[in-house]
Amino acid sequence: MNSLHEHILVVEDDTQIRSFICFTLEAETYICHTAATAEEAMRLLAAEPIDLMLLDLGLPDLDGTEVIRRLRTWSEMPVIVVSARDQDKEKVAVLDLGADDYLTKPFSASELLARIRVALRHMYKQSGAKANPVYQAGELRLDAEKRKVYLGESEIHVTPMEYALLLLLFKNQGKVLTTSVILREIWGAGYGQDTQALRTLTAGLRRKIEKNPAKPRYILTEIGVGYRLAEERE
Fold first, then answer.
1. pLDDT in tens, 115-149
2. DSSP readout, the chain?
3. The pTM is what?
């Protein structure tokens, strides 16, 4: 059960889906706010203490992408897109705009709740982050103060670029990062769309940290979108 009673805004014009989501959230003690239009959503975002937004893209008055664009001018609140649009280009576009995750309809209640927990955990981790924390996923550990990577008790020797990639993924653990976001953060805004360089870098890092690089446990590929670091516990 959730103990913090976070406020979640559900922006969805389909009454049945909206009711299903709110029933699921309230069963976990989240506080559910609803909006059927973009205009209503923006009004609630300005008036209520919303912690996370679940956003459908196909709204009657405005496309959901515009809601994300406007929200990101003043807030870093977690946004999970919940949409029937399943094209990779659509997913990449909203994630690049600033959405935290993308859930394709139809989806299960357990999957929805898992995505929400990841987004909220990441938000709290960012707000209370130490200057040089130690990140961990299963046996994989990154010590930001010492700039070292460990697998179990063994230190893994990584290149500066591999370290930068792993640190970026750890800072966004559980969240999918598009290839364009990773390229911009690691190589800089002017690097373009050289996805081959990123694939090569990822493959080299996987060979060092994965028991079976062909079936990775830590760095997961979101086909056509980007990469995600698994939310693993010891």
1. 999 898 888 776 655 556 889 999 999 998 888 99
2. --SS--EEEEE-S-HHHHHHHHHHHHHTTPEEEEESSHHHHHHHHHHS---EEEE-SB-SSSBHHHHHHHHTTT----EEEEES---HHHHHHHHHHT-SEEEESS--HHHHHHHHHHHHHHHHHHHT--SS-EEEETTEEEETTTTEEEETTEEE---HHHHHHHHHHHHTTTS-EEHHHHHHHHH-GGG---HHHHHHHHHHHHHHH-SSTTS-SSEEEETTTEEEE-----
3. 0.70
